[in-house]
Amino acid sequence: MAAIDLLHRRPIRLSGEPLRSTWSCLILNLVVNSRADDRLDAVFAAVADPTRRAIVADLARHGGRTTGELAQPHAMSLPAVSKHLSVLERAGLVSRTRRGRNQVYALRPQPLSEAAQWLDRHHRFWTERIDALTDYLEAQ
Amino acid sequence: MTSLHITRILPAPVDRVWAALTRPEALTAWFWPPRLQPRVTADPRPGGEYRIEGTGMAVSGRYVEVDEPRRLVFTWRWDGDATESVVTIDLTGLGVKTELTLVHDRLDGDTDRDNHLLGWNDCLDRLAAC
Questions:
Q1: Which ipTM did the prediction report?
Q2: pLDDT, tens digit, 9 for 90 and up, residues B13-46
Q3: CA angle A117, B85, B34 (to 5 degrees)
Q4: Taking CB atoms and an 8 Å cutoff, what residues of chain A touch B127?
């Protein structure tokens, strides 16, 4: 299972600093801008916790991960990590499938993909405009 | 719900940057590429309107906050788009240079814009880590 590059809507492979920073920004934006909308409240609550943010970032980098793999970087028990994962699942941010004896989790970018498209479009737009402003100021 | 946040250092003192951002003739010179034959009107005072047209596209809105030469807040709507958003530009003079921070907020129809902007002011510090 591959993670989805939010900005370009295509699967990506393991590495991917840009993806991770995109996610950090989206998550932060959601944290600070969340509004009284049930779905967003759930997303807000889900990413308000540092462990869950780390899990989301992990899934963005690696695609499908088992509970054990997701627990590894954190000093906590499997049940504790499972609890965090159910919060993320209720918010619609992760999906869960069974693979043999393992539960495998994957990121579900849909709740954030529309936001990501808007961000991408306007980030490019403003970056180019500020470049043009810089040229204008230098030429004066 | 969604916001874009950009910080850049510009190669001019803050007064010149302010003029470039608010004077129609300056905006005409840099905002769209010349090949789009830009036309700009701007009335930079709270409630005043602006419109920046180029061949095939245009954006317009009104000024919400005009605090020369520190802060410019204006609404933003592409022609043909139903949704309006808000752009906040903060300038900090650094002698011969200027730090520009731009925040573009996408708003939902039922969002209270003022609360939204206030929320952003409180949150900029946290966003710096982004």
A1: 0.79
A2: 999 999 999 999 999 999 988 888 999 999 999 9
A3: 80
A4: 28-29, 32
